[in-house]
Automatic annotation (TrEMBL):
Native source species: Mytilus edulis
Membrane topology: Multi-pass membrane protein
Protein name (database record): G-protein coupled receptors family 1 profile domain-containing protein
Residues annotated as signal peptide: none
Top-level taxonomic group: Eukaryota
Keyword terms, alphabetized: G-protein coupled receptor, Membrane, Receptor, Transducer, Transmembrane, Transmembrane helix
Length: 390
């Protein structure tokens, strides 16, 4: 333990620490750029001590003139800071002269600008965070590590908060423009104008095509001029014959295009699947009803129970309600798809038992239209036109 730790007459011990990267300034002139940095120079400790001792009287007088008020303390701190800068700056400053026409000028400014939400407070926290990183890398201990974690937490939390506020403000602004100023709203999403400038001069363009036209006109022969006529192809201008129409009609019938008018009619598989689903639902819901009814009848006849139990009656009532619900669903399905079902059912019966049931007028029209195609209609129109011409 130091013997003068608690003594009022112990001298003050002043310790100064300067970071590796000091303040950087740029002083520009007409010809050169002067880059000034401030770094601690251990070789000039003696000169710095001598300069500090010579300014001790000024520092002591500033402290003696201080009054116990906030303004007085701030003024004293400012004066002490100016005195220390006067003492140490001449020994720590290093200036570099860079020619303005140099091609390898290095600048500490980032190539990309800062984000809009990156304000002065963000820059300050960012600077503190990186200083703590350098301090921790120089001296890795628990204290520096805790300081680094705390500074990183403060920087990230503040940056995320101001970023959220900025994005919320921008979103509200865009939403306001969408309702009240559509032109400004669409300008936000409009891409930048493309550069339409061209390096090709108009005179070069004109001379190139002028020479090209002159060369082409000199190479034209009489044969080329004779062939420069309107193109007429007899094969394309010939009328469609009846054999070609019948061949195309057979091909379309073979590929199944005759159902073009009735494509909305469901196929047999669709109706069969629907009927299968309804039948399975009927079996699952109606079988338990009959089982419980038979059980109650048998037990009543044998005399085991004079009156059916409450459980059996409840289960029977539940399945009876389900039966009525299923009946209503089946009625609705038949009402919606009944027309299609009856149509398919009639087609099946007409194929198998044609003597019992005959197709209706709608079915006859649909079956008669099965062989009608676009080409046959065209051929009929052409035949009608030829008869009129005759």
């Amino acid at each position: 333990m130091d013997f003068n730790m608690w003594s009022d007459h112990a001298p003050v011990r002043l310790t100064l620490e300067i970071a590796d990267t000091g303040i950087q300034t740029f002083n520009s002139s007409d010809d050169n750029i002067f880059h000034s940095t401030y770094r601690w120079d251990p070789d000039k400790i003696t000169e710095m001590k001598t300069s500090l001792i010579s300014h001790m009287d000024t520092m002591s007088s500033n402290v003696e003139q201080m009054v116990c008020t906030e303004q007085s303390i701030e003024n004293t701190v400012i004066k002490l800071t100016e005195t220390l800068n006067t003492v140490f700056k001449p020994f720590c400053e290093k200036r570099y002269c860079i020619k303005r026409n140099a091609t390898n000028i290095k600048s500490n400014k980032n190539s990309l600008p800062n984000k809009p939400w990156f304000d002065d407070r963000c820059k300050e926290l960012y600077y503190i965070y990186h200083c703590n990183i350098r301090r921790f890398n120089r001296n890795r201990n628990n204290l520096n590590r805790q300081i680094l974690i705390e500074s990183k937490k403060n920087y990230k939390s503040y940056e995320n908060r101001v970023k959220r506020n900025y994005l919320r403000y921008e979103g509200n602004q865009i939403d306001y423009w969408r309702k009240h100023n559509p032109k400004q709203f669409f300008d936000v999403f409009k891409k930048g104008k493309k550069n339409t400038n061209c390096n090709l001069k108009s005179s070069d363009f004109y001379n190139h095509f002028k020479n090209l036209t002159a060369e082409t006109s000199s190479n034209i022969t009489d044969d080329v001029e004779a062939d420069n006529q309107e193109c007429v192809y007899n094969e394309l201008d010939a009328s469609i014959t009846q054999e070609e129409g019948m061949e195309a009609s057979k091909r379309k019938l073979r590929l199944g295009h005759h159902r073009s008018k009735n494509r909305l009619v469901p196929s047999y598989g669709t109706v069969a699947g629907l009927l299968t689903a309804v039948s399975i639902t009927f079996i699952f819901l109606h079988t338990p009803i009959h089982i419980f009814k038979l059980k109650v009848i048998i037990e009543t006849i044998t005399g085991k129970y004079k009156v059916a139990s409450v459980t059996d009656l409840t289960i029977g009532n539940v399945f009876q309600v389900m039966y009525y619900l299923n009946s209503s669903v089946n009625f609705l399905v038949y009402y919606i798809c009944g027309n299609n079902f009856r149509r398919v059912f009639k087609e099946v019966l007409c194929k198998n038992i044609s003597c019992c049931v005959c197709p209706g007028e709608d079915d006859e029209d649909r079956l008669s239209d099965a062989g009608t195609t676009e080409l046959t209609i065209i051929l009929e129109k052409s035949d009608a036109g030829s008869e009129k011409s005759r």
